[in-house]
Amino acid sequence: MDLLLNKDFMQEFLSPIWLSIKIATISGIVVILLGTLIGRIFARKSFKRKAIVETLLMLPMVLPPTVVGFFLIVVFGRNSIAGQAIEWLFHQPIIFTWWAAVIASIVVAFPLMYQSAKSGFQGVDLNIEEAARVDGANEWRIFLFISIPLASKSLISGAILSFARALGEFGATLMFAGNIPGETQTIPTAIYIAIDSGNMQLAWMWVISIVILSFLMLLVVRVKQND
């Protein structure tokens, strides 16, 4: 109880939690938008090498996080074209910033949202969409007012799972964003450092926090799937 009343201790405890939530929220919004749009396209379109493109989109789900982090460093590092462009625009490299953690979270969480969105849109009755076209609705209106509502259960599940995945991202974040307290230290990296330094009390508090958050999100998914 004394620790909970200690201002410095509470700041140390809460900082990774707020940062993790902020990173997961921003990356979650990006993933939801991209996953929904790309999932809709791939659910309805067929083209050459579609299987190869989909495999590349899903690859971060099965690759070791350190491999994902390595590729992010290669793509956005200071010696890359993208990295130099970012440094020229913002006057600092993106690596070892909290924006790097956002990018890492987007990459690892996207496959979950994409797969859920694609499955949801594939379950939408094509006859309903065609009837809307006959009535004069354009593709955007069909997408917004017919496809999305009918696929909403899958989209909500994908969004929650993606947020949970972003919240728990560790390996790629540690490599690409580092573990700077107050800057890039998220809950998973904070737990790792706390255990490594022997601070088990703080580690337990972070573990319990992320378990509770993850449990609540998965519970919402299960409730939505059973509705």
UniProtKB/TrEMBL annotation:
What are the alphabetically sorted keywords of the record? Cell membrane, Membrane, Molybdenum, Transmembrane, Transmembrane helix, Transport
Q: How does it sit in the membrane?
A: Multi-pass membrane protein
Pfam families from the UniProt entry: BPD_transp_1 (PF00528)
Annotated ABC transmembrane type-1 domain residues = 17-221
Source organism, top-level taxon = Bacteria
Repeat keyword on record: no
Q: Belongs to which family?
A: Belongs to the binding-protein-dependent transport system permease family. CysTW subfamily.
Question: NCBIfam families annotated for this entry?
Answer: modB_ABC (TIGR02141)
Describe the function of this protein.
Part of the binding-protein-dependent transport system for molybdenum; probably responsible for the translocation of the substrate across the membrane.
PANTHER family per record: MOLYBDENUM TRANSPORT SYSTEM PERMEASE PROTEIN MODB (PTHR30183:SF3)
Q: What is the official name of this protein in its record?
A: Molybdenum transport system permease
Q: Which organism is it from?
A: Lysinibacillus halotolerans
Taxon lineage: Bacteria, Bacillati, Bacillota, Bacilli, Bacillales
